[in-house]
Amino acid sequence: MLSQELLISTALVLLLPYYLCLRAGCRSNNPAVIPTNWPILHMFPSFVANLHNLQDYFTLVLAGSGHNFRAHGPPGTGMRFFVTCDPANIRHIFTTNYTNFPKGAEFAAIFDIMGGSIFTIDGEPARRQRAKIKGVLSSPRLVARMEACCRNKVENSLLPLFAHMASTDTSFNMQELMSRFMFDMAATPLFDVDPGLLSWDMPPMDAAVAMDTVMEVALFQVMMPASCWRLIRWLNMGPERKLKAAHTVLCAFVMEMMDRRKVNTCRVGNDEEQEGIDILSSFLNDPNYDDDDLLCAMIISYMLAARDTVGATLTWIFYNLAQHPKVVSIIRKELSPIASRKVADGVDSMVIFEPNETKSLVYLRAVLYETLRLHPAAPLKRKVVAADDIMPSGREVHAGDTIFISLHSMGRMEGIWGKDCLNYNPDRWLSEDGNKLRYVPSHKFLAFNSGPRMCLGKDIAVMQMKTVIASTLWNFDVEVMEGQSIQAKPSCILEMKNGLMVKLKKREM
């Protein structure tokens, strides 16, 4: 009882600054360059007061402190942070000395629903699982299947829905549609079953909402003392109660899709033609993955990675392009030779761009990269320090420290990207003749990770985004509705808090 009372008392002390900040309305959009170091509580109140706007807060502080700063929480909480967006430090963390900077046990505890998956593990287990996943995703048959799946979903679901919205002059939430589209795109090659979230009747998207909850609560947990959120979890209150419900929904979704997959398998038969086409088959046939909990964790981690990153990025792409009609014109000019051939071949409706047709389009890829520079899908990465070290910037870090790498801030640093760092300019990615991409090292552009943990699904994600953007922009004009408040949702994924309301207009060819 004494230890429980102590925990509760500690939590109340730690949460008091949050309550006072909210009550006093002290959520500042212009915080001091360095967080205020309060007595006893140190910098914890400053972090909590700006949790709603954490990415911009980090950017302001990092810009004023030379791309690096240290922060401390109350004594005994273990809150010792080193926050950086310095490319030299990032190369050290992700490549040069990456074994000294694991995700750590607390990260695994925060994302316990994905426990045991590559998303949460380090060291040799991560290397083995990564090799397995790399082998699966590099299968020519599976890649062809995923390309066909994307192309068919765009032609048979996305564009007809867009055409209806355009013909009825109906505004809609682009972020929700991209979330539905990518949920189906993630699940179909995984289970060989299309959940059908992107359909005319717009069915409930409980599993997708549960995924959002996991990422929103995770940000709260990442920035709070572990003892604080663990106590809230024990009390089954607030965000932890929501998280528990989300876990239940996601596990039920996995079971439902597994059952539907079994029905489909029985219907088509288990012949050699069907075997191994979906991702799940590769793991069900592997004795190393015969644990149901591990398999469920891996499925959920794949769904989160495949849906969240691409869905969020597509929304920001449409938002940025609506503000830059000249960029849209250049994209259409690049697409024009492909579209002309299709028209000559007798295409008399909407033009669909095949994944292999957009693969070599340089400017379109530059548009994707420029969006990811300013709006990285995962804006913040978290590591821990295994042993004392010295960063290339000269800062010392100590065993047990938490390191935050702010991708969102990195894209907004003049010292990294130049004086026009805040401008949306795809040309920065092009060679002088515009025919190829400039080389930018991954420790400067971290959207697809870096070093031994480089994103395994990068090429698939780029293929999906190119197919959606090319087919949409060629057939429609996209208008963002005025009067919206465009701001990031407090989450580990950079989604828009209020969505993105748009209207479409069918282009006259």
What this model shows, in words?
The radius of gyration is 23 Å and the shape is globular. Helix content is 54%, strand content 7%. It has helices at residues 2-24, 44-49, 54-64, 87-96, 105-110, 123-137, 140-167, 174-191, 206-223, 226-235, 238-268, 279-284, 292-323, 325-344, 355-358, 362-374, 407-410, 414-417, 458-475; strands spanning 68-72, 80-84, 172-173, 380-384, 389-390, 396-397, 402-406, 476-480, 501-506. The protein has a domain at 1-96 and 380-420: 2-Layer Sandwich (Uridine Diphospho-n-acetylenolpyruvylglucosamine Reductase, domain 2), CATH 3.30.43.20. It contains 19 helices and nine strands. Helix 7 (140-167) packs antiparallel against helix 8, helix 8 (174-191) runs antiparallel to helix 13 (292-323) and helix 9 packs across helix 11 (238-268). The chain has 509 residues and is α+β, with helices and mostly antiparallel strands.
